[in-house]
Structures are given as structure tokens and as C-alpha cells.
Amino acid sequence: MSLLVVATYPVEGGALLKGQVTLESDGSLAVDGSPIPASQGTSALLSAACQAASHLGEPTPHALVAGDIGRGDGTRAVYKHLAETASRVQPAVVVFHYMQPIMALLRHGLDELLDVCPDALLVADAGGMYAAKAAGLAPRFELMTPDVGEIGFLADPQATHPAYVARYLFGGGDFDPAVLARKAYESGGSSRVLLIKGAIDHIVEKGEVAAVVEEPTVPALEAIGGTGDTITGLASALLSAGFDSVDAAVCASRANREAGLAMQATPAMRASDLVSRLPQVLEKNLDRWRNHSSDGAVT
Amino acid sequence: MRLFQRKGKAVETIEDEALGLFLFDEVTDALAAERALKASGYQVSLVAPPPHLRAGCDLAVALPRVEQLGAQRVLAESSVHVRDWVDGTEESTGICDLVTTVDFGRWLMVRAGNMKIVVDKDSREIVNTSGGGCPDIPYLNLRYVGELLSDVGRPKDVGFTLCGLMLDRAYLEACALLDGKAPT
Predict the structure, then answer these.
(1) B5 located within any domain
(2) Which of residues B88 and A243 earns the better pLDDT score?
(3) Nearest to B6 by CA among A219, A198, A167, A164
(4) Residue numbers in B near A217 (CB within 8 A)
């Protein structure tokens, strides 16, 4: 089983990189031997996925990434190479992550991808998720991982970007992720499974809540850039290792929280601090969690 | 700790006018147009184009129809590329104006829509940015974290996308809450 991550990295004019991802013991990350900077975003996702793969004895992810600081050049470059890369790697799971959310590019890219890998499970977060939803392609995805600022976007049929979500759909005192998840599913704005990241994580299957994870409570994680990306990386790696989608989401949520607790998270820490705690957390808990992750309400 | 405190902000609108929209290929063009037109004295607002005219991450500039000609000249003189002009703003929508804060004691987190910025209340150091999904957000994270709030350019001038624009709103709110005034 293999995992392909399609995304960008934050270097202006950064080269197209495609190949195996390596995570060194000092936290530095490389794609096909070329280093990419540590920040929130795709580097956090890849780092967490590497830790999960290493724990499970699976190959580390394959990445198709290019430098992009918001102009869309790197995004266009990776889409040009998507079909060829997927044909060669034959991934079981393909993740679309930080990318310029251009609907036409995703439509064309998905058509090409599914021609060469018709059985690949699709995961989307960040710009990949924005484009999938805006283009009406969300139902073709197995898993999406919105946060509380994004589930309203998935539930709003008119919105093509979270910046345009109707005010009442944003996370406030009356915010109910379960209601919005059902609305998103019914309006075609949701993948089959959603992992909604928040103070309480909701795992939703076909519009219905399958599990919630609320312990341990680590409020500072919301403030740390990249700690949502690490959840997506963990869930994707578990999915590619054969976990059921709901199991993968629940275990990812729990592992992220436990790592946040272990690092004694403060708002001034980094996603790399969390990633460094994952090996111990997974070693201690993953087998136990996997056997009990679909029991419904989880704490 | 205050969770999800609502803070109402005035929506940029131009009331009682028949409006039209400048459409752009890139968010950066829309932001440049807003800057150029405001600098020339036009009252404009940034909005989402109507759904059938959207390509994804895009932004339009609304202004009174009667001012189109002069405004178009300003944009041409400023070398801002305009894709098209449409009369009317039906089905266009404003950008989310919901700003919330979380007080972590030593640190203040401000969220605008899907974007967050976290600042050390004493030193004014930006200790984290998060959220979003466009590629300029990790770039802004690398540029901003570890810098003082007053030492960085506005996210909408450094970034390129709607997520960058939302981070700009969070940044302005953080400046206003901690320093009593927002940069222009």
C-alpha cells in the first residue's frame, strides 16, 4: 500500500520534486533527497505521515510537490505531472493538500488520475479540499479533514472559498458540527467520511456522526500552525496502511491529542514538537485504539 | 478563556448606488486594484463574484457603475490587469466578516474566518499563524513567526490569495486589540 501526497511547499520558484519522503531524527524533511522547509502545511502533514508509516513498517509517503507562495505556479506544475506520477507509484491513497484552489485544474487532474488509478482512495484538506468542494467533486473523496472554520464552507452550497461562507455557518456559540456535516453531505459538499477538527473532533460517515474524540483536551493545539495538518497526515498514512476510514480518523485524532499532551503544548510551540512525540504515542496506544476505535462515542 | 467571542465589524458596502464589478484573473490583481482605486479616492469594496463567474480562489471589486470609466483608466495607468466588467452585483457576496478571539493568558489568538494569528501579548511577537489552505499561508507562516507584529508587512500585501486576505483581517484585529490601532 502506498500514499501519494500532491501539494506545494512555500519556496518561491521551488523546483518540482517527486519521490520518497524522508524525515530525519532532527525533524528535517526531504523529498527525493531535496530538503523542504518546516512550516505549517504540507511539511507538517508529511512529517506526521512518515512517523505513522515508520511505526507500522510501511513505506514513507511519496510526494509530488512544487514551490508555490500563492501565485499558483507550483500548483499548475504538480497537476501537469500528476497522471504520470500516479501511474508509476500506483498509490492506494492520494492526498490533495496545500494548493491553489482552482476548480478547473482539479477537475482535469482527477479525470487523469482516476484513469490510471481508478481504485485510489482520495483525501483532501486545505486548498485541495476547497477546490474539490467548489468544483462539486467532494462526493468522489473518501476523507476530508475540515476544521471548525471550514465545515461551514462545505455546508454552504454557494461558497467557493471559506472566505465567502455565510456568517451564520462559522464556528460560534451555537455552532453544531454534526448539523453542518449532515447539511454538507446532503448538498454534495462532503466526502464519504469527514474528520472535523476542533475542541471536540467529530468523525462523520455519510453525514452521520460515527464517533467523537474529546480527550485529552489540549486547547493550545488550535493555536499551533500545522497541528491540523498532522492529523490529516496521520489519518492518510493509517488509511494507506489498510485501516478503515473511520478507524483511521479516530486513531489520528487521538494520537494528535496525546502527542499534544505529551509535549505540554503552548501556543508558542511548533508542529514539529508534536511530530517528535508521535513515535512514543503510537507505540504505546495504536494497537489498543485500533481495536476499539469504532465503539461510537470515544473519549 | 473566551471562546468564539463574536465581534461585529462594519461590512464594506456602498449603499444606495447601482454597482458593477471589475473581475480579475488573480486575487493579487483584485487587491492591487482596490489599493489603486482607494488611493485615487474611489469608494470600492472587495466581494466574491457571482457563482457562475467564479473560478475558485477569486475576488472582485465593486464600485458605482457611473464611475467605471474613470476607474478603468486608473487601473490601466496602474498596470492592473482587468479580466472584465459586469453591470450589477446580483449574486455577489461579501467576504466573511466574523472575527473571534481566544485569550490564552500570555498569548492572544485572533481568528478571522478560516485564518488565525497568535501573538505574545507582552512582546508583540507573532508566535504562530494557522488555518487556511492556499499556498501563501505556509509562506506567510515562515515569514511572520518570530517577528514583531509591527515589523511585518500586512498579509494582504505579502500574500496573494483569499486566505492571505483573511489573515490580513486577523492581523489588523490583533494590532487593534494589542496596540489600539490598526495599520493602514
Answers:
(1) no
(2) A243
(3) A167
(4) none
Tell me how far apart the alpha carbons of residues A19 and A56 are, in angstroms, rounded to a whole number: 20
Fold of A3-292: UDP-N-acetylmuramoyl-L-alanine:D-glutamate ligase (3.40.1190)
Question: Could you tell me the residue range of the domain that residue B67 belongs to?
Answer: 19-94
> B114–A71: do the CB atoms touch at under 8 Å?
no
- Residue B174 and residue B103 in contact, taking contact as beta carbons nearer than 8 Å: no
Contacts of B136 in chain A (CB under 8 A): 10, 69-70
Instruction: Find residues 91-120 of chain B whose CB sits inside 8 Å of chain A.
Output: 93-98, 100, 102, 104, 107, 109, 111, 113-116, 118, 120
The mean pLDDT of A271-294, rounded to a whole number, is 90
The secondary structure of residue B182, as a DSSP letter, is -
Predicted confidence at residue A168, as pLDDT, reads 56
CA-to-CA dists, residue B152 to B30, B69, B123, B148, angstroms: 22, 35, 14, 7
* H helical segments located in chain A: 42-56, 73-89, 103-116, 126-134, 151-155, 177-186, 227-240, 245-262, 271-292
Listed as ranges, residues in chain B with pLDDT below 50 are 1-13
Cell 471559506, residue?
A: A162
pTM for this model (two decimals):
0.88
Write the pLDDT tens digit of every residue in B25-74.
Answer: 888 899 999 999 999 888 898 988 887 777 766 789 998 787 887 888 89
Same domain, B81 and B111: no
Of B109, B133, B141, the CB nearest to A129: B133
**B174 reaches A (C-beta below 8 A):** no
Q: For residue A294, is pLDDT > 80?
A: no
How far is B93 from B114, CA to CA, in rounded Å? 17
| Closest CA in chain B for residue A151 | B114
